[in-house]
Amino acid sequence: MSVKYPFDALVFDLGGVIIPHDNKMLHDRLAAGSTAPDALAQIRARSTDHRMGTGEITARQLYDELRRDIGYGRNWAGFQADWSCHLGIDHAMLDFVRDLATTNRVMLFSNTNEEHWNYLATVTDDALNKFESYLSFRLGMVKPSPDAFRRVAKDAGIEPTRSLFVDDLAENVAAAESVGFHGHVFKGKAGLEAYLATSTP
Predict the structure, then answer these.
(1) Is residue 79 domain-shared with residue 97, that is, in the same domain?
(2) pTM listed for this prediction
């Protein structure tokens, strides 16, 4: 049975915490389907453009650009498979966070795009859709912008000083802390459990 921790909300990043990902695999897979000699460099730049996270550029638009500019040759279904090939599931963490949600207010705050979110919702048997979620492509804002954290706090109706944010990237945790959140840099489930066991807001 889950413990009730002394936070009003536990806010989790998705990628690198619940969802392991290998961006090199993604870039290599897209480049393998392309003909331009500089395909890999172009793919790295385009797939990490922050506008992918804000929804200003959709995956469909990226697909059209890759076909036009670097000779990406797969159809839309093939691109969708390539686009999500690098995403996995840490089932132990997913179960842990689901257990936390039985006695704590648990939220997700992730930099992601609609295609990745829909793919992950499907492969987790819709488990992710059962969480209260704040997604960059819906917000139009991405971490590590402090304003993104302020927006999440406002939309969720939470007080940052009474809430915890967990992310695998130190810069995102630092941004959360800059607006008042407690922060934990995720390095594994055991470390998070140890932190929770000793933390007080």
Answers:
(1) no
(2) 0.94
Tell me the pLDDT of the chain (201 aa) as tens digits: 578 999 999 999 999 999 999 999 999 999 999 999 999 999 999 988 999 999 999 999 999 999 999 999 999 999 999 999 999 999 999 999 999 999 999 999 999 999 999 999 999 999 999 999 999 999 999 999 999 999 999 999 999 999 999 999 999 999 999 999 999 999 999 999 999 999 876
CA nearest 117: which of 34, 1, 14, 10?
Answer: 14
C-alpha to C-alpha distance for 153 and 9, rounded to whole angstroms: 10
CA atoms within 13 A on the CB side of 78: 13
The CA distance from 95 to 101, in Å, is: 10
**Sequence-ordered list of residues with C-beta below 8 angstroms from that of 166, at least 6 positions apart, any chain:** 10, 11, 12, 13, 17, 173, 183, 184, 186, 192
Within this chain, do residues 167 and 93 fall inside the same structural domain, yes or no?
Answer: yes
- 104 with 185, same domain: the answer is yes
178 and 97, same domain (yes or no): yes
